Amino acid sequence: MTPETAETLAARLHPLQRILDLLLPPRCLACGDVVERQGMLCAPCWAAITFVADPLCRCCGLPFAFDPESDADSPGGEGFACGACLAEPPPFQRARAVMRYDDASRPLLLGFKHGDRTEAAPPFAAWMARSGAELLAEAEVIAPVPLHWRRLVARRYNQAALLSRSLAGLGGAPALPDLLLRRRATPSQGRLSRVERQRNVAGAFAVNPRRAAALQGRRLLLIDDVMTTGATVSACARAALKAGASAVDVLVLARALRD
Ligand SMILES: [Zn+2]
Ligand SMILES: [Zn+2]
After folding, report:
1. Containing domain of residue 97, as a range?
2. Can you tell me the distance from the alpha carbon of 228 to that of 101, in angstroms, rounded to the nearest whole number?
3. CA of residue 98 to ligand 1 center, whole Å
4. pTM for the whole thing?
5. Of 34, 40, 58, 177, whose CB neighbour count within 10 A is largest?
6. Any idea what the CATH number is for the domain that residue 239 is in?
7. Please, what are the averages of pLDDT over each run of 10 residues along the chain (259 residues)?
8. Ligand 2 centre from 252 Cα, in Å?
């Protein structure tokens, strides 16, 4: 599209958007209060969100309570890895998250996952593109953590697939929503421990044979809404690497962190 046609289109759409906003006022993505524009948070909800910021574990993206770089005795290099990543390196190369999964961000995530607030996908993807700029720039294929088909039918959409499609529009790599398949339905992980989660998802994912060629020798950016222990994204990463991906990075909207 040439710049002129894009501008003409924007000029034509703008009054329509304003009429729509009057009829259906845009609502805060977390609490539902009326806000100025579609895809926004109201000021109090925005202030309550804890955004994940540097310094981070260079591998899993865990925020450090203090800056290891400022410790003169520490070795230099390309950032630092946390104790867990040093003890047992995860199958993915890097994981990054926009915000902490906590009481403030939970309504945002649940509304997106179960509440049909799919209009949140583009603004969420824009936040993810900022937090994972390096990952997005290096990605060659983007794919979501898949839902089992039965859950997809019940929920009508896969929130991670919506995010990956919006992210593909912001970066250069294509989104392949059916790259990974969930071979079996796994019980909800809500109350499971780390080891139980690993067992729960072991072997649950596979690369779609029809998409395997698109993954050969390529760097995959795996997308999900929430990362808890990392068991699910690790299981997906293992499946992708086994099927020929050169490396896997992970980008999520929110991450559960222990205090
Ligand atoms: Zn709000
Ligand atoms: Zn780490």
Report:
1. 82-255
2. 9
3. 18
4. 0.85
5. 177
6. 3.40.50.2020
7. 46 59 78 86 94 93 78 56 94 97 93 85 94 97 92 87 95 94 79 81 91 97 95 96 98 90
8. 15
